[in-house]
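call fold(seq) -> tokens
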Amino acid sequence: MPPIDRRSMLLASATIPLTLAGFRATDVAQAAESASSAKPPVAPEPQDITRTLAHYIVAAKYDDLPPKVRKEGVRTLFNWVGVAIGGSHHETVDIAVSALAPFSGPPQANLLGRRERFDVMNAAFLNGVSSHIFDYDDTHLKTIIHPAGPVASAILALAEMQPVNGKDFLNALVLGVETECRIGNAVYPNHYDVGWHITGTTGVFGAAAAVGKLIGLNEQQMIWALGLAASQPVGLRESFGSMNKSFNLGRAASNGLFAAILASKNFTSSDKMIEAKRGWANTLSTKQDYTQITDGLGQHYEAALNTYKPFACGIVMHPAIDAAIQLRNENRLIPDQIARVELKVNPLVLELTGKKTPRDGLEGKFSIYHATAVALVEGAGGEKQFSDRAVRDPVIVDLRGKVVPIVDPMIKPEQVDMTIVLKDGRSLHKYIEHAIGSLEVPMSDQALEKKFADLADGTIPAQQARHVMDLCWGVEDLTNAGDIAKNAAAA
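ret:
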């Protein structure tokens, strides 16, 4: 038998149609093409989310606001002004003022609690930083957004340059809060879980909407303002515990103002920047529920769900502080009596506030160990309890080492189950279902006034603080809401 010529066989095979399991090569190719086209159908791109929201913002009137929503809007403003005055002389603000002063434009707007005046853009930024530096501002609990900072900082600065009556001001504030919280609802918690600081990333929408409302944007311009806002997400959770965290709110305020001003001159954007395939929501989150943005506009209000902090720190630590203060006061506890403090908490508590050895007051705001210890030692959780002094106090440091958080997924983020074991063998127990400051146990107007007065103490005289409080409570009757900023500045 002659030897096999492999080269001839290969050449010959090239002229014979290839088969696979009885199919010609062309059949196989067609089958592959058909298989690749049989992918699951892609959900249709949601229609006109940005436009629907813009239409609502442009059309909404003060008279449309229910009394309860107006009242909560006033409380939101009141609380924000207090925390902005209180934070105005923190080192963070001093540094920012010093850094930006050489670059500021005309002195158009006041800094609350300070003597300096800046251009509107920089004043919005600096008041935003000031209002958040203590982590003492308002909170939309469904999303952990701090709504007032970006919105109020932007429109109050604007109101000093362009007079705005109180009713229009309050309407814009509510609309801004409504905008950022609804957008936050659409992507929370996935957006937050991946690492975005949701107040910065959604606050820019609120600021753009509120400023746009006050300067009279039409529907198309409002769409562009929201689109330009979408292009400026700011803030990562890695910044928590540093000056950078309050930077995020300040930047959201100035970015939103920037977006609305540009849109007023017909600086364009995509008409679908929120909902498009490569828009804000799809780029920044794995969850998109656009019904949260558009359903019930003008019928139910996220702005009515705002809450105010009785304690100057991360909201997830409030139940522990509440429990610690109650046990301390009920039993007249002193630190030397305590052997161990056990608290069952939701996993989110340690994820957000697990700093065992905070180095300064800002880090203390993200330490469940410090928050619990200082509440037991001093019976409070205000700004002074999250200062550098408190974080370094030897008695508090010692007790901090006795705090033992235990993660329990059955405990909700707004709850805590605390047991204090005393050196004499006794155990004291407190379970908090809803902490003070929650929707279920809200701060009263009187409690907000005390908080405001405490924050203003040492920054502006008591008589001046009282006058500013009265202006805030009566904002709806003001000829120009900018008078609040003028009267809240240091003499």
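Residues 1-42 have pLDDT under 50 and may be disordered.
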